[in-house]
Amino acid sequence: MTLGSGGTAADFDLVLRHGRVVDGTGNPAFFADVAVKDGRIAVVGRVEGRSKAELDLRGLVIAPGFIDVHTHVDELAEQPLAENFIRMGVTTVVTGNCGESAPDVDRFFADIERTGATINTATLVGHGTVRGRVMGGSFDREPTADELARMKSEVDQAMRDGAIGMSTGLIYPPGSFARTPEIVELARVVAAHDGLYASHMRNEGREIFPALDEVFRVAREAGLPAEVSHIKLSGPASWGQADAVIEAIEQATIRDAATYNDPHHYREGIPLVLVNGVPVVEDGQVAGARPRRPLRHRRVR
Ligand SMILES: [Zn+2]
């Protein structure tokens, strides 16, 4: 780092020089300088002028902060520095996955704001969390009409408090006892707020295809985008089917215009291609990928 000459007004606070910019649009990388002023990117390109500080990034990549869509940092307020994310370049996290979230979304954000967490945070509302609270200790059954109404109202409140969608964890109690129509009913509430549905599916091994069909059904019947959480083929008996799984998701994406997946990148799972958006059909042709409905992060800190 070289400091600019003292005493003279600087044009920028920081200039990153000689790096390769990967800007997140999907376009190829390009060489450019990036200038920062008042906490914002001021120039991308050839940067002239003085800067309070400069970094030489020869051989390195300059990229926007990464978004980690699958975390379980529901106690983020207890680790506000979130150094494990920041050091990996992750500047935005989505938590509340696999059916489990902070019980009170409003409080969750209030705690983060009070402790001043360093990363941007969005949360899903956990279906299991809501189901557990409303149905008490008895889960191996369908909810009564009254319980379902209360669950819907809790999901509605969580969405109003800033959740971006609902997650399920259908291998974990109490979510594992929920039948599909219950999930569809709750997902409709989420859809009314333009939220999304993320599922740790009912099965990730031998029965993965019926489990995928359940995700597709929720997306279709509730009318909202769905995401297959940490997709993988779990257990040797199911290995070797990655192509068929991808094909099923791609077909559903084209048919329902509503499916995403996020992959597990470790040995237990089989990494799959990340589908960032959904194909958009124009004039009978798949015209490209873009999110069906841009996520409104109504409350992101
Ligand atoms: Zn999970």
Describe, in plain words, how this protein is organized in 3D.
- With 301 residues, the protein is α/β, with parallel strands linked by helices.
- The chain has 2 domains: 2-62, Urease, subunit C, domain 1 (Roll), CATH 2.30.40.10; 66-290, Metal-dependent hydrolases (TIM Barrel), CATH 3.20.20.
- It contains 7 helices and 16 strands.
- It has helices at residues 83-86, 105-115, 127-135, 145-160, 180-192, 208-222, 242-256; strands spanning 2-3, 14-21, 30-37, 40-45, 53-56, 61-62, 66-68, 90-95, 120-123, 125-126, 165-169, 196-200, 226-231, 259-263, 278-282, 285-290.
- Strands 1, 2, 3, 4, 5 and 6 form a 6-stranded mixed beta sheet that branches. A 5-stranded parallel beta sheet has the order 10-11-12-13-14. Strands 7-8-9 form a 3-stranded parallel beta sheet, with no helix packed on it.
- It is globular and about 70 Å long.
- Zinc ion binds next to strand 13.
- Zinc ion (ZN) binds at residues 98, 169, 200, 229-230.
Could you tell me the mean pLDDT? Answer: 84
The total count of strands amounts to 16
Percent range for helical residues?
A: 25-40%
What string gives the helices and strands in order? Answer: EEEEEEEHEHEEHHEHEHEHEEE
Question: Which oligomeric state applies?
Answer: single chain
The CATH superfamily name of the largest domain is: Metal-dependent hydrolases
Structure, briefly:
This protein has 301 residues and is of the alpha/beta class.
List the helices and strands and how they pair.
Layout: E1 2-3, E2 14-21, E3 30-37, E4 40-45, E5 53-56, E6 61-62, E7 66-68, H1 83-86, E8 90-95, H2 105-115, E9 120-123, E10 125-126, H3 127-135, H4 145-160, E11 165-169, H5 180-192, E12 196-200, H6 208-222, E13 226-231, H7 242-256, E14 259-263, E15 278-282, E16 285-290
Parallel strand pairs: 2-5, 2-6, 7-8, 8-9, 10-11, 11-12, 12-13, 13-14
Antiparallel strand pairs: 1-5, 2-3, 3-4, 15-16
The structure holds zinc ion.
